[in-house]
Design a protein that fits this description.
It contains 4 helices and 6 strands, in the order H-E-E-H-E-E-E-H-H-E. It is of the alpha+beta class. The protein starts with a helix and ends with a strand. The mean pLDDT is 95.
């Protein structure tokens, strides 16, 4: 689990590197039936930024944690990109799409950690 927490921190830094904002880490590790241990959710202001955040997360995870995503979906339109690191699922949204799906409230039992924006 320590390695997973380090991966979450590395992913968060990758998001911040490209000015992703409203970062939320949902700890699902204590929830039976959860599809992963952590959700990392953030927002980018445009499809270009969403794509850049995705590239940054991939680069940080590979270089600093030695991890590659098992699967990445959503790159075609870059409104919602989901990156699967098995124990960590990363969701990078455009603002209106994030609001619509409201993933933070989907897992009410999760421990939610809101990461302050850097700017």
């Amino acid at each position: 689990m320590v390695k997973t927490k380090e991966l979450v921190e590395t992913i968060t830094k990758g998001i911040q590197e490209k000015k992703g904002h409203s970062i939320v880490v949902a700890d699902l590790s204590g929830i039976e039936g959860a599809i992963s241990n952590y959700f990392v959710i953030c927002t980018g202001n445009s499809p270009t930024q969403v794509d850049a955040i995705t590239d940054s997360v991939e680069e940080f995870a590979r270089e600093k944690a030695g991890e590659k995503p098992v699967h990445v979906v959503g790159r075609e339109n870059a409104q919602w990109i989901a990156m699967d690191y098995t124990d960590v699922l990363v969701h990078i949204f455009l603002p209106d799409v994030r609001e619509y799906y409201n993933l933070e409230n989907l897992w009410e039992d999760a421990k939610i950690n809101r990461i302050p924006d850097l700017d």
